[in-house]
């Protein structure tokens, strides 16, 4: 049978999921601001328990010079001092421009990268202090869905072997029980169990990402890092994968770190949203507050770039266009790293690094404008 015929035979279950397109998902997010809040409690409850706690996380990559005698000359500051919490049962969205350190943050949290500094607590246990053997056991509870559904699956393994690998690595099942659980997982994520012996190249992009989701679920984890799981998919498939993740979260009580650069998609799925810029945290609050009352100028610019499916509103609203390029993490600016592109920057921004602090209940921001809000209107309080 020709490969194209195989793909058409393996009916893509994605077509049965609604909404049909990413545009529909974006429109829902725009027209129903309380969508995320209706799904679950938006933001963190006062008594919410932190499943993951990140303190002062840094991930710097050394740059070496020399052929025979290698000498470190600089460092890429991919992640430069993050502190935040992810609460049990919530979805924390992590957004920012490409190259801001989102994926590196996710990989550092689950110890795929060994952090340069900082601590990562999972269920009050410091992952950075664990031995390789201890971390191996902990990985049963911590899994990752990778960005590229093509590169993240071994082309030489059947789908059944790919999904079964966590079961075998963690000794969770043997013999016929492995086959039974694999078929059950395929059914859960919307794949036909009859295709268990097929290879990744015989599936569509949406189906491959579902295989990745099934693999992440195999060990029955508590926490999943979803690293841009929809960015490599057609817009008609993106909303379906998000809905699948929502359904799985409700069924299995999962906690997500959802990494993406599409703010409309992040709002659709997240309880709270964190905004990163050049390796640092700019703002963190619940999804609705971030859209309705952003406090950081960078967040304002990101939100202004999200299209609204209403021609009249889109034609009249003001778009904030940032000037210049994102600085290099090899040589980040002094003071506030955003001051080179900020329309409200003043002298203090160039010298002092703003603290990432809670300015309102549940609303964290790193910006000097929170101390001098009148500067947004062009008023210099030092001259009065």
Automatic annotation (TrEMBL):
Residue segments, region Disordered: 1-42
Coiled coil start-end: none
Entry's Gene Ontology BP terms: peptide transport; transmembrane transport
Keyword Nucleotide-binding: yes
Superkingdom field: Bacteria
Domain ABC transporter: residue ranges: 52-303
GO MF entries: ATP binding; ATP hydrolysis activity
Sorted UniProt keywords: ATP-binding, Nucleotide-binding, Transport
Matching Pfam families: ABC_tran, oligo_HPY
Listed Basic and acidic residues bias regions: 1-17
SMART domains: AAA
Family: Belongs to the ABC transporter superfamily.
PANTHER family referenced in this protein's UniProt entry, alphabetically: D,D-DIPEPTIDE TRANSPORT ATP-BINDING PROTEIN DDPF-RELATED, TRANSPORT ATP-BINDING PROTEIN
UniProt-listed NCBIfam families: oligo_HPY, PRK11308.1
Protein name stated in the entry: Peptide ABC transporter substrate-binding protein
Species of origin: Bradymonas sediminis
């Amino acid at each position: 049978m020709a490969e194209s015929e195989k793909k058409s035979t393996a009916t893509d279950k994605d077509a049965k999921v609604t909404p049909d397109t990413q545009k529909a998902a974006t429109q829902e997010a725009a027209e129903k601001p309380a969508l995320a809040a209706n799904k679950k409690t938006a933001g963190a409850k006062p008594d919410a328990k932190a499943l993951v706690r990140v303190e002062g996380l840094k991930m710097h990559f050394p740059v070496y010079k020399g052929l025979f005698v290698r000498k470190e000359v600089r460092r890429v500051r991919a992640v430069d001092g993050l502190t935040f919490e992810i609460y049990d049962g919530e979805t924390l969205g992590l957004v920012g421009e490409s190259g801001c350190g989102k994926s590196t943050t996710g990989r550092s949290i689950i110890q795929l990268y060994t952090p340069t500094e900082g601590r990562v607590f999972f269920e009050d246990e410091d992952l950075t202090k664990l031995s390789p053997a201890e971390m191996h056991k902990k990985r049963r509870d911590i899994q990752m869905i990778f960005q590229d559904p093509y590169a993240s699956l071994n082309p030489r393994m059947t789908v059944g072997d790919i999904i079964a690998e966590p079961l075998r690595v963690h000794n969770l099942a043997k013999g016929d029980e492995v086959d039974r659980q694999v078929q059950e997982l395929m059914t859960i994520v919307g794949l036909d169990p009859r295709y268990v012996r097929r290879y990744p190249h015989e599936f569509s992009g949406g189906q491959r990402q579902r295989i990745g989701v099934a693999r992440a679920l195999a060990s029955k984890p508590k926490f999943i890092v979803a690293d841009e799981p929809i960015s490599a998919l057609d817009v008609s498939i993106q909303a379906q994968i998000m809905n699948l993740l929502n359904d799985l979260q409700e069924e299995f009580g999962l906690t997500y770190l959802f990494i993406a650069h599409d703010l409309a998609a992040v709002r659709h799925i997240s309880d709270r949203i964190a905004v990163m810029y050049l390796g640092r945290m700019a703002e963190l609050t619940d999804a609705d507050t971030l859209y309705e009352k952003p406090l950081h100028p960078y967040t304002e610019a990101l939100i202004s770039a999200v299209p609204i499916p209403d021609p009249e509103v889109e034609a009249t609203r003001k778009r904030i266009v940032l000037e210049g390029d994102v600085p290099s993490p090899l040589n980040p600016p002094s003071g506030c790293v955003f001051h080179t592109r900020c329309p409200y920057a003043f002298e203090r921004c160039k010298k002092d690094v703003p603290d990432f602090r809670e300015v309102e209940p549940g609303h964290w921001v790193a910006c000097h404008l929170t101390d001098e809000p009148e500067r947004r209107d062009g008023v210099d309080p030092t001259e009065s």
